[in-house]
Specification:
single chain, four-stranded mixed beta sheet, 14 helices, binds ligand EPZ
Length: 418
Amino acid sequence: MDKMVIKGGVELNGSVRVSGAKNSALKLMFASLLAEGKHVFHNVPELADVESARKLLQSLGCESEFSQNTLIINSKSLASNKADYELVRKMRASILCLGPLLAKTGDAIVSLPGGCAIGTRPIDLHLEAMKAMGAEIELKEGYVHAKAKKLKGTTFLFEKVTVGGTENMMMAATLAEGATILENAAKEPEIVDLANYLIKMGAKITGHGTSVIHIEGVDKLKPAEHTICPDRIEAGTLLIAGAITGGEVTVTHVEPLYLEAFLSKLREAHFKIETTSNTITIKKLKSWKSVDITTAPHPLFATDLQAQFMALMTLAHGTSVIAETVFENRFMHVTELMRLGADITPKTQVAVVRGIPEKGLTAAPVMATDLRASASLVLAGLAARGETVVNRIYHLDRGYERMEEKLSSLGAQIRRAD
Ligand code: EPZ
């Protein structure tokens, strides 16, 4: 199994291009189920999760070609309406085929995704949304069986903000009869990207990017062409790589507005940030201040950057309180950071991080447990004295395109080993 070997303590400097967003690409891929023909996506990151989504689409009868970050999906009349457990368990986002399959075929069978390292992550709200649109839902032998001759528009209030729930309902509603209003909808940039693609396909959507989304159902959609939006989480991770090593890093092909809450916390920690319309630069700073963060749905501080920010706070001056409110078990990186010498007291969904800027982190073998936890360990390894080995790096490959190449291009001494 691959591991990452990092010789820490090297300043990272330079400019690096941000890839397309995984969490947008996957959803647009599933949206292709809504219309037969060729869907063309540019700026698609080459990631294990994209491969998993391709396999799932293939099992449903969609062919695809992927080269140089352009993905062409040929969506045919579907060969199957069943998303198998073996494919869904590899990637939770597979549940996002439920809405499109149901809307297109009137009959979808999708495996329940099962457990996850960062929390229980139920899909009750996805199912409630489908039911509200008239679907009959049954859970049998680990699968969701959803049926509806024709979905009906409705007004649905999400009890909790859910990115996936919003996306599933948005896709299903495009082909429903009449108008659907999603209240307390998620506002993430990836939702806006999905809505923009659906609109190109002929869907009638307004309000995306706000908490109330209106969708007027249409009879048919057509395939379209789209460039995936930039990956704000990768951008944030690369900026911290610069910050934690005391270097100056510019990320390009990014949308600074997606990262406002994160950048404002970096500024509060005394980092100087410069932005243009599509670049962000973090300036060199040798000693930074601790700040508190609380994760929450967009536009507040993203849970997907919490672990990486915690790595930065382990070397800040002062004590930082990090509260995770989106997932109940997203502190798996804490004990691994402590193996590198970090001084952290984890409580339920809150971690108190006492910075050790003078002492610093020291290398150790650590184990990655999920995607963003892996990223935080790589970042800590970049700053730690000595050679850190991050095991189980396949988590990183699910969501970061050529991470070690990008970090090496900034001067990091990092290599992949078997
Ligand atoms: C998406 O997950 C992202 N994944 C996650 O990124 C991200 O952390 C998360 O949104 C929050 O921003 C993809 O886009 C593929 P949610 P999703 O539904 O849609 C609860 C990464 O590292 N909930 O917004 O699954 C849920 O348990 C990944 O790239 C219900 O209770 O997240 C959680 O506590 C990890 N019932 C909260 O809502 C439901 O039916 C938010 O989850 C659905 C969700």
